[in-house]
Specification:
Elements (H helix, E strand, L loop, with lengths): L2 H7 L9 E3 L6 E4 L6 H15 L14 E6 L11 H4 L3 H10 L4 E7 L5 E9 L2 H5 L2 H13 E2 L11 E4 L2 E4 L1 H10 L7 E2 L4 H11 L2
Parallel strand pairs: 2-3, 3-5
Antiparallel strand pairs: 1-6, 1-9, 4-5, 7-8
Length: 207
């Protein structure tokens, strides 16, 4: 990868640069899936967390769970979830907007004072496209898109996933960026585009 390609992964559509990683162990909870699917989702998340060199935990002392994943059939279901509107202001308005856009996924992040990720909410509306994906592929893709705060355009043109020997895997260059972003010598959050130079230096050292 080039420095420009790495920079683009964290440059938002308004032109601002923002790269943030989790600053605390990840504690996931999943709603709306069959019990047999849970190990698949947790396994994908564990694999990506291990890749990053980060940690998971049984509970977050402040929040209990800090990564909430909701599988739904329709955006209208979310406003009916008890207390969710307390965690996500203007939830009904957001869901109406997502329904109008026919969106099938949405992620919201919360941050600690230093800018590192504190919590994330992942909403997946299981439309025809998402329902046709194998559970492993969908779970791995969501884990990758939640382990860092990527640009809103990061994977618009190319999925973070690829194929090797008929198996769906995380693209090696994306894996390398995740590992680089979790280098303990780097800050948990960076808003200066020069951060991409520090990332690409660490990506290059992995090869």
């Amino acid at each position: 990868m080039t420095e420009a390609e790495v920079r683009a992964l964290f440059t938002r559509s308004d032109g601002s640069f923002l790269c943030a990683r989790w600053g605390r162990p990840i504690v996931p909870v999943v709603f709306g899936v069959e019990p047999e699917t849970l190990p698949v989702i947790k396994g994908a998340l564990e694999a990506v967390v291990l890749l990053a060199g980060h940690k998971m935990a049984e509970t977050d002392p402040e929040l209990g769970a800090n990564l909430m994943v909701f599988f739904i059939r329709d955006w209208a279901e979310l406003p009916r979830v008890p207390d969710l509107d307390r965690l996500i202001p203007d939830l009904a308005t957001l869901c109406a907007r997502l329904a109008a856009a026919e969106a099938n996924q949405y992620r919201i992040f919360r941050f600690d004072p230093d800018g590192a990720i504190k919590a994330a909410f992942v909403f997946l509306r299981m439309d025809k496209h998402l329902s046709e994906l194998p559970a492993e592929t969908l779970a791995l893709s969501q884990a990758v898109q939640t382990i860092l705060l990527w640009s809103d355009r990061a994977f618009a043109d190319a999925s973070p996933m690829g194929r090797a020997g008929g198996v769906v895997i995380l693209r090696p260059e994306v894996a390398a960026v995740i590992r680089a972003a979790y280098d303990p010598t780097l800050p948990g959050c960076a808003q200066d585009a020069s951060h991409a130079l520090r990332l690409i230096a660490r990506v290059s050292m992995q090869h």
